[in-house]
Structure formats: structure tokens, C-alpha cells
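Researcher: Structure prediction, please.
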Amino acid sequence: MLGSGALIAAYLASKSPRDQHLRLVLGPQAADVTGVEIQYVAEDGDVARDARMTFAPGEAPRVVSHEPQLADGDYRVRIDLDTREGRRTVERRVTLGGGTTQVDLTTALSPRTAP
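Model: Predicted structure follows.
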């Protein structure tokens, strides 16, 4: 009986929101970023959390940290990057589990070349 109670408690703990750690790597093009908007979309399609950060021109850090309160699990992360050249949108699938998750956005910020 005690063992099943511990299993239920562990299951419920994994489903309750807790601090997650997301790092968005902007890299050398960070100076071009003036805003970052993040949406965490759960498996059911609902937006579980969202956040918006703005930066003065040339002041965005090379790595942007965000620590939402979310349950462990799989999410589709939609990231809108406002740059001097316009908005760029990136979507990635991540699994949050209490550790640090890193999303590399350097290719999305690389200078675009004309065909």
C-alpha cells in the first residue's frame, strides 16, 4: 500500500508545474535581435506558457535564458525573433524534464543570401 502511494505521488509530481530552464542561443548575430517571443505549445495544442522579451538595439545577449513554470513533458516551442531585417519564426520540439534545455537559433539569424 505504501509503495503504491509513493508511485502515485511521484506521478502527480511529474505532472505539476515546476521550474524549467530554457536557453536560446542567439550567437554572434545577437546584436541584430530586438525582441524574442516564446510560446510553449503542449501536446494537446494549447499554449501552456508564453513570454516576450525586448532588447535595446545591440543589447541582446548571446544566450537568452527563460525559466517558465511547466510540467515535465514534450512541447513545441515557437520562437519569434524580431531583428533589424524583420521577424523570423522558428519552431522546435523539446522535452522538458527539470534540467537545462538549449535551443540553437544561430542558423535562423545567419544573414540571408539572395538566390
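Model: The first helix runs from residue 2 to 15.
Researcher: Thanks, that helps.
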